[in-house]
Amino acid sequence: MAKKIKTDSKKDPAGGKPSALIDTRVIYCGDNLDQLKKFPDGCVDLIYIDPPFNSNRNYEVFWGETKEKRSFEDRHASTQAYIEFMRPRCVELHRVLKKTGSFYYHCDWHASHYVKIMLDQIFSENQFQTEIIWRRTNAKGLAFRSFPNDHDTIFYYTKNNDYTFNRQYLPHDKKYIKEFYKYVEPKTGRQYQLADLTNPNKDRPNLTYEFLGVKRVWRWTKKRMQDAYKKGLIVQSKPGAVPRLKRYLDEQKGMPIDSIWADIPPIQSQSEERLGYPTQKPLALLDRIIKASSNENDIVLDAFCGCGTALVAAENLGRQWIGIDMSPTACRVMAKRLRDVCKMKEDEKLWRIGRGFIVRDLPWTEKQLREIPPFEFENWAVIALGGIPNKAQVGDMGIDGRIYPVSATPKKKAGELDFMDVWYPIQVKQKDKTGSPDIRDFEGVMTTHERAKGFFVSFGYTEDALKEIDNLFRTTGKVIIPLTVREILEEQIARKLV
Q1: CA-closest candidate to residue 358, choices 9, 24, 21, 13
Q2: What pTM was computed for the model?
Q3: 26-167+257-360 — its CATH code?
Q4: Mode of pairing for the β-strands spanning 151-158 and 128-135
Q5: According to CATH, what is the number of the domain 366-496?
Q6: Element (H, E) at 176
Q7: Residue 416: helix, strand or coil by DSSP?
């Protein structure tokens, strides 16, 4: 039988660390298999993963439409390749999970049945707890000869039979309340229902007695019944009627949440938390999992953490957390999210005293940045400048991102980034030497969008390119700020971002 347990994570008053085994509040950039092998056995309380079906060692997240979709779909030649990719990672995840820990694997219909077999082999069939069905979208009129696939599956396993589980509830719906809690106390206004007090087991001599003139086999002892009657909790509608128990609505926790989750909507185009990340999951989904299977200060690990929803949920709920992702862009996006949403500081000194977080193993060298795909490099550069990358990589008309300064003012229409009146375009080129033709093209973009200022990022610039920038300012007053990758890496860009 599952039971609640207390976390054994303790904060070190000297160093601010919640665990003597492993660092927390850390985002690792890199292959999770390599990173997990560095973790000690049994160091994590809760693991949630949402690995993309199409993935491999070089998996990266790219915002956009055509390029994004092509990269995302062509990663695995078969389900077998996916399972071969995931198996060693799940073995490591099982190893680092505490004996009292829980594991959630989020997937869709593509490979769920094969994933279940793999997890049974690693965790054992006896440790499989539940198959959660999350309705992630509404039916679409697309599948004419089949049923639309509108749900995801979340497999829930535990390390052994002594694990943390905190029952979660949903509020009763209005129809249920109207039907079952139809009585109201005149003095207090409290709603209640009348519940049965008789015992279904008729062979209970010690509970067989007469109460209020009615002999039955009762659920409670006679003394307990009398005490409840004195408190006004037992009602007899008329002499000879079977007494019943008042059960107040305001004392009920609600409807226990079962394995069908249809109450959490997916991320929509108008969702406030939407980042444009292709597989972003709603915060409410992670809130539920973390509340159910961890306690305050427990350690939560997401080894495919993408845009960091699990990390934000863990931080908001007072848990410790660790994130791993292959994508430098994803790591920077989740770091920005932690700063903006959770108001955390990304600072090594603060992290050491338990008050901030850090990102480790980002590709901070020019050599590494030259080797990542062009659209990943574009996102890295835009985010490094504090800008917003384009969600579309096709048809961006020479704009790879936008910077919205503090002085930007909203238009009447709110809800999207386009509501900002003031923004500066960013153009990124993964070139050793950007030339004057590239600068002239960017000048055209600025003219089209009526921008007086723009930012250009490259590894270097020709003399002609710099002369073109200077000439543009002298003749039109428009400003193009050329930034090099080295300046960004060495954080020498503040003086140019004014």
Answers
A1: 24
A2: 0.68
A3: 3.40.50.150
A4: antiparallel
A5: 3.40.1350
A6: helix 174-180
A7: coil
